[in-house]
Amino acid sequence: MKKVSFIVVVMLILSLAIAGCGGSGEQAEEKPKEAVMIVEIPKGDPFIDLAYSGLEQLGKDKGVNVKIIEALDKSEHEEQIRAMAELGANPIYVLWDNLGAAVIQVAPDFPDTKFIIADAYVETDLENVKTVVVEPQEASFIAGFVAAKTSESKHVGFVGSMDTPIINRFRAGFEAGVKYADKNVKVESVYAGNANDPNKGSEIAKLIIGNGADVIMHAANKTGLGVIKACEEEEVLAIGVDEWQGKINPDVVFWSALKDIAGAIYKAGESALDGSFVPGMQVYDISTGISLYDSRDFEKLPDELQQDVLALVEELKAGKITVPTTIN
Q1: Per-residue pLDDT averaged across 217-237, rounded?
Q2: Can you list the domains of the chain with their CATH numbers?
């Protein structure tokens, strides 16, 4: 891993050096700005790709060079973040709690660099660190409601990647939504213990299906692709997450609990570039206008269920329903 890290750093040094070289004129061209996203699981994970798409769009719109760095070894997190800061990347994004904790250690040494921690509940008073969170429990609550109303066996399932605060919010919202719709519907929830193992996801989903579930939601990153595959093979329904996963198979993934992390990534980076950066935690939820589901899924629901979902959204907006963030 040390060798990989060294190669990554050398490549970035060369790219920055090339970007900073002008022609033969007296004054060198201004070096383009660089922004990086550091992640702890490989690119190709649906959530990682969704998050990075927000940075890619920012790069296109603002003329910023963007890169993604895979810091797969936890022992090297601080080293990777420090290396990017020394190279002049600004802003520097990281995803999740482990990398967020590393940012807190590194950021004080680079006061002119903006650090953005995404999808983690990391609080700090550092003036150059911003945390952005898109709350998942409200979209999951509606997904649970729809799952309960759709299930014929009165048994639904949830597969999470890891037992973490973020994933627990997905689960808490889903389970609460199911019980809000019908207290007699059974919810079977299992953690895979891995965010990058589709085979494990498929194995767990088939176990839940074998127990009688006919609708399964996942919040399991790449592992969740295995959940969807199992649902397809066993001819039951799946609920996707983060983005519209109906693109995989709309007949199987009939609903998706949206989480617009790409938009949050874009807005945070934009603030770092235009001077409006405000440190602290920025939370996006139903009160800030985020979308909780995709219209393509909504339009396929029976008319009565459509009206129920619309009413539920209004109750959430009005604060008449408080969705739990922890598991009972």
Answers
A1: 99
A2: 2-135+261-287 (3.40.50.2300), 137-258+294-317 (3.40.50.2300)
